[in-house]
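Memo to structure team: turn this sequence into structure tokens by end of day. - J.P.
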Amino acid sequence: MLGILIGVGAVIAMLALGQGAQKSMEERLASLGSNLLMVMPGSSNVGGVSMGAGSVTRFTLADAEALSKAGGNIKAVSPSVSGRVQAVYENKNWNTRVQGTGVAYADIRSAKPEYGRFFTEEEVKLRSKVVVVGTTVVSQLFGNNDPIGKTIKLNRINFNIIGVLPQKGSTGFQDQDDAVVVPVTTAMYRLLGKIYVDSIDVEATGSAVMTEAAEEIRQIIIAKHELKNNETDSFQIRNMEDIQNTMKSITTTLTMLLGSIAAISLLVGGIGIMNIMLVSVTERTKEIGLRKAIGAQEKDILMQFLIEAVVMTASGGIIGVIFGSLIAFGMSKLAGWTVVVTTFSILLSTIFSAAIGLIFGIFPARKAAKLNPIEALRFE
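Reply from structure team:
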């Protein structure tokens, strides 16, 4: 029972970790935006040497405007520039990432402020010095105080805080909450000194038309920049849905791998069950002989030992489910990991443990059932 208990507990804990990782990944990818296409400058090759991203087909605000007016499968468009700035409030300062965006960014990237508001089209046109800040920046500069309405300096320029971004957590080594968002025109002409945008976020009207939307974007850019057939690789369109599907596939594979490794301990437990049952048959040889002598048939003896094996493993499995769930939630509390104990993993582990008892109990049960009653009664 102990072997099965440990095996089932390991399966439950490992599957809970894998499912938790998948859920966490899905939530973080969803926070990046749904139905999202990213239009980015491409790279050119000169004499076999790659010139790097952005070396050709630079995009401007006019490109973003052309895409926003296209209609069709394109729902919303937001140009984007980014860089690093030093944020200062009173005697505190913090180096953070600045994101210059359009008004549609809040909807496209699921970034509607939890407190305050997002900037308006009018503020984008006027290059207003307004800023929406991430929770990490708030904690570093303001602690537990309300930042709305306060004035901070970004690269020595005063900005008025109008909102606080929703908390999104970390992606890899990057803290998504360690950022400030300003109007794209303000970022380009007041903070970063850029005349081109780094990328353009485009939201499609639905997940089913992502390919069509990407093709519409491609045709608009080719026409606007008068690109030739051999220059169409001078920009790239990244489909976030493809990235999401890839990440889901990776986490699913990881979950199956963890579950398979843990299932090995269940097989080891099953071998232990078989050995114990073989010992039990040897120790109870006279009992088996007596039962057969008073009329028990082979199937009766077979069922007796099979039931014992299945009850033993099923009991260990049920206790293992409780044990594994406690381990999973313990890891969640101590390490802060996301864990998800599903009904599927509980049923899988319990049924698998009972099946192991049945499979590994057959050989000892058959051995007991085949004993000669006369020889069994004479056994010492």
